[in-house]
Write a structure and sequence with these properties.
Length: about 300
């Protein structure tokens, strides 16, 4: 049963979708920035609305949600491209000026959260040697923040299907004496990467790789086929109203993995975080063990 608050929220989201979809371009400008800011704030409502399930909404609203997620992905790409270009062209040391990106503080929090969850599941508390980030984009902030603040000796292999995105990302880190030796960029569709995936201790899957359920599951199945037994997969998902912004990954989507924990933020961090481990035996075992993590435990 959808309550009155949820009906109002859905109506507001649909209204914003109509306005966003009528824009001539989703490149950063006043109108685009204002509408997407309103959308994000609408999708981070106070309790009890965060717990509603978008899968219970009408088919029409579900279709609107799918289109909206793609528009969000397009706008996010334009925003990252804009700031990556700006940073590289304006500064000799672009990584010293990342705070210019309007959502940099969110990435700091999300990366800290992901690292906090990750270290609870690392073997012998040993930092991973090699990490892959799938869908790194033109402004690979997660890789940069993790590499500089948390995993300071780990090498990061960033995968993106878009050559221009990788070119911009490479420009950002090429002047940094440390990251230029530990950060690598691969222009390829991850579905075409196979045995190479066995080299990674941890694989991060960006929220917008696979923008609908079928695409997302196809990518996860592919990773499950080639990642090494015992390797960890960090998947970004969404919960409650935030599922209007990003795709949802359910535990049942992670076939061949044991789901170790799921975390749903309630602050300005948008993405939920799911960590799972490749199973050494019985890869189609669906008896996933899920631990819902408390905010206090993660952020203490």
């Amino acid at each position: 049963m959808v309550c009155q608050e949820e009906l109002l929220l859905v109506a507001k989201v649909c209204e914003l979708y109509d306005q966003i979809s009528s824009l001539e371009s989703l490149k950063p400008c006043k109108d685009v920035n204002t509408l997407f800011t309103q959308l994000v704030l609408t999708c981070m409502p106070p309790p009890p609305t965060p717990n509603f399930d978008v899968s219970n909404l009408s088919t029409t609203v579900q279709e609107t949600r799918s289109k909206l997620i793609r528009l969000c992905g397009e706008a996010e790409g334009h925003l990252e491209t804009h700031f990556s270009t700006l940073l590289s062209s304006s500064y000799d040391n672009p990584l010293h000026h990342l705070t210019l990106f309007p959502y940099y503080s969110n990435y700091l929090k999300l990366s800290h959260l992901e690292y906090t969850i990750l270290v609870q599941h690392l073997t012998n508390n040993k930092d991973p040697n090699k990490v892959a980030f799938v869908g790194s984009g033109p402004l690979p902030l997660t890789s940069i923040v993790l590499a500089t603040k948390h995993l300071t000796r780990t090498s990061f292999h960033n995968y993106d299907i878009d050559p221009s995105a990788n070119s911009l990302a490479l420009d950002l880190v090429s002047t940094d004496p440390d990251l230029s030796t530990r950060m690598f960029f691969h222009t390829v569709d991850i579905m075409d990467v196979s045995d190479e995936l066995r080299d990674y201790d941890v694989v991060f899957l960006a929220a917008l790789v696979g923008m609908d359920k079928e695409e997302k599951v196809r990518v996860i199945d592919h990773l499950g086929k080639y990642m090494s037994p015992g390797a960890l997969l960090m998947v970004r998902s969404a919960h409650g109203a935030r599922a209007f912004l990003y795709p949802v990954v359910d535990p049942c989507d992670l076939r061949g993995f044991e789901v170790l924990s799921i975390y749903h933020p309630t602050d300005e961090v948008i993405n939920s975080v799911v960590i799972a481990q490749i199973q050494a035996f019985n890869p189609l075992n669906h008896g996933n063990m899920i631990e819902e993590l408390a905010i206090e435990d993660q952020l203490s």
